[in-house]
Specification:
single chain; mainly alpha; two-stranded parallel ribbon; two-stranded parallel sheet; 10 helices; 6 strands; 47% helix
Length: 258
């Protein structure tokens, strides 16, 4: 019987994920030339003018520019538009704002401003796989910002810039692509709970493997939530989801761990 193992992948391994994570890398490295090269010369990211970005990197190398810790002494800013300097300026002005932003709505505005300034109008919709992961990443960003808003409303405002917190949060998520290979698809437990299936078999369940817990606002450290930090058992919700999305559901379980 042919089978297909459908393991989740980090969204950061996709083109859209690379775009988002590179923004964080560039800022945290003080706009190092290495981080800018990895970003601007990434062929998977649909930039408007890749040739201009290559000229910018070549100009930075010829001028021996390696980083720009201070905006006021940023030597990249002196690179003329004819050598791609305009694209860097579009990046720097908005990225500095994004990496310092604590307002949820403004975070989205800055990200969309960067995409509009740097990417082709189609952004990541040109390829089906990229579009799907981009949609997933933006959905996760929306959920993340909503959690930050609810934490603030509950009296626990996030007193840190939000986007630098989001990247490790997104790295911990898993995206399961919908591939078309034939065969029985095998998923890790919980990753297919919301996928409709006419027949579904869940094997080797036991108390350890089937228990699912989530941590409130896991992007915050324990001391920032103090007594509000609790693990929530959502095992019942997961099993009910399997029941809801399965035409015929079969379980294989045991009382002990194998």
């Amino acid at each position: 019987i042919p089978v297909v193992f459908a393991s989740g992948e980090s969204p950061l391994s996709s083109a859209s994920g690379a775009f988002l994570s590179s923004l964080s890398d560039i800022h945290s490295s003080s706009y190092s030339l290495d981080s800018l090269k990895s970003f601007f010369l990434n062929p998977a990211i649909p930039f408007q003018d890749p040739e201009a970005l290559l000229r910018f990197v070549e100009a930075a190398i010829s001028n021996s520019i390696t980083s720009a810790p201070s905006f006021s002494r940023d030597r990249y800013m002196k690179i003329p538009a004819s050598e791609g300097g305009g694209w860097y300026r579009a990046l720097r002005f908005t990225l500095d704002k994004l990496m310092a932003e604590k307002d949820s709505e403004a975070v989205l505005q800055h990200i969309h401003a960067l995409m509009a300034a740097l990417l082709v109008p189609e952004e990541f919709s040109g390829r089906e796989d990229d579009a799907a992961v981009y949609s997933f990443a933006m959905h996760e960003l929306g959920a993340f910002l909503d959690k930050a808003r609810r934490a603030k409303a509950a009296g626990y405002p996030v007193d840190k810039p939000l986007f630098p917190l989001f990247i490790p949060y997104l790295a911990g998520e898993r995206y399961v692509p919908r591939k078309k290979e034939g065969g029985i698809r095998i998923y890790p437990f919980t990753q297919d709970a919301a996928l409709s299936a006419r027949y579904r078999v869940i094997i080797a369940l036991n108390d350890d493997e089937s228990t699912v817990r989530v941590r409130k606002a896991r992007f915050l450290s324990d001391y920032e939530l103090s007594e509000e930090r609790k693990d929530t058992d959502i095992t019942r919700d997961v099993l009910e989801s399997y029941t809801l999305f399965s035409g015929n559901l079969f379980l294989s379980a045991s009382s002990q761990t194998y």
